[in-house]
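Re: the 509-residue chain
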Amino acid sequence: MSDNLTAKQNDYAVFLPALSGFYATFVGKQRFSPYVDPARIPPHLQWGVEGMNWLNDRDNHFQYHWTLYSAGHANLDLNKQDPSEDMVRNRNRSTSLLVGDSGGFQIGKGVWEGDWKDPNCPKAQKKRELVLKWMDALMDYGMCLDIPAWVARSPEGQKATGITTYEEACRATDINNEYFIANRTGDCKFLNVLQGENHPDAEDWYQRMKKYCDPAQYNKHFNGWAMGGQNMCDIDLALRRLVHIIHDGLLEQGKHDWMHFLGTSKLEWAVLLTVIQRAVRKYHNANFTISFDCASPFLATANGQVYTNTTTVDATKWSYRMEPGIDDKKYATDTRSYRDACLQDNIYENFTDSPITSGLAVKDVCIYKPGDLNKVGKEGNTSWDSFSYALLMGHNVYQHIDAVQTANREFDAGSVPLMLIHKGMGKHYFQETVDKIFAAKTREDALKIIDNNHDYWMQIIGTRGATGKKTLNTNDSWNEFFGPAVVETLDDNAELDATNLDNLEQSLL
């Protein structure tokens, strides 16, 4: 079974799976030596581990053109061969597109130490140089190296960077932006990251940073935008920001064709962003593309969760359904398919196969039987080994991409998620209103439409809510390999920052 998801993308906003270094390691290292014992690879995966590389344009179990990869957990030293990075470093650039996250999160969390507000700090300058060279060499689009506004609330960030105020975060971002513009080669197109934790700060940040996209001020200006902070999760603010960018002349065809929304996982937002993309293309920039990313497929697996099915019923909440993965040593000799075992043993009510699980035996995931020793020579509680995680990550990536595309197809066929339905104005109010906003001839007229719909925007839940709570991951297999991990539970999606995930994964590699 193979599926070309690139061919199914249509004119939808583009979802970017936030590639995990753990997953990439399996693909990359297998190219150099049998990192995974060939006998361990399920026979239905005819192209082996390489077939799990969706960036390949041939010989894969599913193909998908677009991905995000973060400098924050990459090996930035391009002078040394690193098999674990080979999926990224040696991809076919004519048939794939990578967007690079710059690693601002690492600065905010204090992982990348240095006095970033001092342009002469050796530590900060070294990292600045490495990130830029890495982006120019490997990425098609990349984020500028922003210092997130929340660094002032991060004890680790304050201690490692000396940044204690919003003003200092802005100053440090200016230093990075000036360096990137002065030293970029032009091989990577850069996105101007917009931060700010509330509307006033977001507006202030935009007014300060918009010059970096202005061709009148910089010959090597940035080539688009990335929505961070409040901009990425507040539809009212996102629409306002787009209106200002357009009427400031900073979303011009051929100059500023890309906008990325950071950390966006809700299915409703996949549809919402498609509607916005189409309206902007219709009235302002025919080349305009919106992308959005999340690490949920990898994080779900790390938390012992498997995507089982997707809900896109008209006038209901739309979501991916994640449930605990099957993990029991009694299945180590069970030759039933993964799907059949789960359904016949009442583990899941429904399960949708992917090209990874179609033909996968349950024993290919639950690899350890009672008495078997794991890689450290001990008998553990889990039936999973490290490749079990990789297999289920591949399944989850496929299911997330397919769910996003399915949601858009259902929307085009007339179904609308409950979140977007205006109780007084009907199912198609969001689409109609967005069209009017971007059809408006003046900035003032567009903003007036946004102002008049304040109550409606309030019902559209952001990509990150304030209802999340910290929980302790109690998945036995995850704990055995990585130790207990704190994960963020948000609404219908278990989220854990991708950087934290990769740090935890290192114990498996």
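The longest helix spans residues 386-412.
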